[in-house]
Amino acid sequence: MKTSNSYTYFFVTTMAIISALLLSILKVNLQGRQEFNKVLDTRKNVLKTVGVLKPGMSDSEVEELYTSKFTKQAVLGSDGTEREYYIYGLPERPEGYVLPVSGKGVWSTINGFIALEPDRSTIKGISFYDHAETPGLGGEIEKDFFARRFVGKKIFKDGELVSVTIAKSKLQEPSEYAVDGLSGASLTTGAINRFLRDDLTDYLPMLSDGDKKTSWR
After folding, report:
1. Is 111 inside a domain boundary?
2. pTM for the complete prediction?
């Protein structure tokens, strides 16, 4: 009986150790994959914002295009903290600039990017991702039809930063500084209006003087 009990204890203990070890390995592998997917998703959205992300691109193609066409840089923002952004194209002859933006939405933090043309005033593209806004309402901010509304809009008026505003509904008349809103999503779009203006304000030193920056890959 003692031998049987000892064997049982040994077997249970051994299985517990093996199970814990396998779970630890699985957790590490999953964390590594999750981190890779997070970085890849960010890079896809950087590409998407300037219009070079194509349907069906492989992970390696995304990595190659990102590495060859984008340079990450940083500038001391107006809030006193270092803000990073991306130059699209050659640093000495940029085809555009991509600025990370984020802020609190209705249900979650909304992350995104806004791309500017070389004039640093005209919007080249925009994308919102990694959020938990309501599908069919605020969640529509991630759709292409909504992003297209921003292309060609201006963030400066007579030399002053005015950002770009999402209207509560359809605009009554065309505007260089505003886009049509989303039905039933006024809280989400109102939040975007606030953090977009705040983030662009933080980037003012870079938008007004491109020489005040540091860079790295």
Report:
1. yes
2. 0.79
Q: What does each of the 217 residues of the chain score in pLDDT, given as a tens digit?
A: 555 667 677 777 777 777 767 766 666 655 666 786 888 889 999 999 999 999 889 999 999 999 999 999 998 887 788 999 999 999 889 999 999 999 999 898 999 999 999 999 999 999 999 888 888 888 899 999 999 999 999 999 999 999 999 999 889 899 999 999 999 889 999 999 999 999 999 999 999 864 334 333 3
Determine the structural domain holding residue 197 and report its residue range: 59-215
Q: Is residue 190 situated within a structural domain?
A: yes
Query: Residue 24 falls within a domain, yes or no?
Result: no
Tally the domains of the chain.
Answer: 1
Three-class HEC string of 119-170: CCCEEEEEEEECCCCCCCCHHHHHCHHHHHHHCCCECEECCEECCCEECCCC
